[in-house]
Design goal:
Blueprint: H1 4-10, H2 15-23, H3 30-49, H4 52-68, H5 79-109, H6 124-128, H7 133-142, H8 146-157, H9 162-169, H10 173-199, H11 207-226
Length: 227
């Protein structure tokens, strides 16, 4: 692991400089790139797979693949874009593999029922987790269709540009804009639906708080009556 002083020094050099030095034999410096983009890569992969452990596995695989093919980075796109694109492709490959396994399992059971992977029905656990806005938002993002979810994660969460997002996902900039608009609309609808049941219980006023106010009012009424 690179020491803290070295990491502070490395933070001042560009991705391209780090890549060149890694190519030249300073392989330990690859850690600089990983620490710079761990969160972005994880988020991009997690937006596709929706499972923490699997997302971590694929993130690691993406780093290994990018390291092995570092000589193919030509600088035409930003390194972060090139790296994210590799991770997205890895995640999509894992998703396709998972879906094939699901199809095989479903066929073996001969249920004849299709599996809806994008169900909008909240689970009991998700209802409980709506106590905080962060959890509500994460759950809502998870329920977006995968095409919208990936665009939303890269554009609104990771703040990547429309052009970078289009490059990473192999779609047009127009498609990015359309999917982002639809993702935001779906999220608004989903969050409203999730929080609607909790609205009536917001600013809950009962128990000791209620007793204290009642006691205070009665005391004041009593004092007024005595006068």
């Amino acid at each position: 692991m690179i020491s803290t002083p070295v990491m502070k020094w490395a933070s001042a050099i560009t991705d391209e400089e780090v890549v060149e030095r890694v190519r030249a034999g300073e392989t330990a410096l690859f850690e600089v790139l990983m620490r710079r983009y761990n969160q972005r890569i994880y988020r991009a992969v997690r937006s596709i797979l929706r499972e923490d452990g699997e997302a971590e596995d694929v993130t690691q695989d993406a780093y290994v693949r990018s390291y092995m093919h570092l000589d193919q980075f030509d600088g035409r796109a930003a390194f972060s874009t090139w790296l994210t694109k590799i991770a997205v492709h890895e995640a999509l490959a894992r998703l396709r593999k998972r879906q094939r396994l699901v199809e095989i399992d479903a066929a073996s059971k001969e249920t004849g029922e299709s599996l809806n992977l994008e169900s909008l029905a909240p689970s009991p656990e998700q209802v409980v987790l709506t106590q905080t806005l962060k959890i509500v938002l994460e759950a809502a993002i998870d329920r977006l269709p995968q095409a919208y979810r990936s665009v939303f994660m890269l554009r609104d969460v990771e703040r990547m540009s429309t052009a970078e997002t289009a490059e990473c996902l192999d779609i047009s900039e127009g498609a990015v804009k359309v999917r982002l608009h639809r993702a935001r609309a779906l999220l608004r609808k989903e969050i409203q639906a999730q929080t609607g049941a909790a609205t009536a219980s917001a600013f809950h006023f009962a128990g000791a708080r209620c007793d204290r106010i009642v006691a205070g009012v009665l005391e004041n009424i009593g004092n007024t009556a005595e006068k």
